[in-house]
Amino acid sequence: MKAANGKARSVADAPALGRELTEHGLRATRQRVALLGLLRSFPGHPTVVDLHESLLERHGTLSRKTVYEILDSFVRVGLASCPTEGQPARYEANEMPHDHARCRSCGRLFDLPPGAAGRRTARPPGFRVEDVRVLVLGVCRDCDRTARPKR
Ligand SMILES: [Zn+2]
Ligand SMILES: [Zn+2]
What is the tens place of the pLDDT at every residue in 107-149? Predict the structure, then answer.
């Protein structure tokens, strides 16, 4: 959903990223600024390994554990989300609420427009709903095609 809100943020704008981190109660370290910028510009839903490999090119000493811990802090303060409980964990910057479909075969996550999968849901009596996240499970077109013999 990177382009869907129409205001793509500049990846190079480190001072703005730093201010956002501070506003969310996080110290604006160089590594956090770099990771937040990367997450915003990364296509799809990168894993820790995807992000770590990409960051290593510029921050050679960064450990995977550090990347994981920074992502964890982003999720805690609402700058990022980990939209699936599946392995490997996949992350994205929080820009616009939306639903996901996950391929059981290749593990890829696909964005769905918010509300496309339906907002109405069963809930316990008296339960105040704050948000509904829908995860559609299935097999994507690519995987379905390789599994099916050609006609
Ligand atoms: Zn697939
Ligand atoms: Zn998404």
Answer: 888 988 876 665 566 788 898 877 777 888 899 999 998 766 6
User: For residue 54, with 0-12 CB atoms within 10 Å meaning exposed, 13-18 middle and 19 or more buried, which class applies?
Assistant: middle
Q: How far is the CA of 57 from the centre of ligand 1 (A)?
A: 29
Domains of the chain, by residue range, sit at: 11-77, 99-147
- Ligand 2 mean position to 3 CA, how many Å? 12
Span from the CA of 41 to the centroid of ligand 1 (angstroms): 23
| Distance in Å, CA 91 to ligand 2 centroid | 8
Yes or no: domain 99-147 corresponds to CATH 3.30.830.10: no
Structure tokens at 12: 């190079």
Residue in the block written with tokens 């995807």: 50
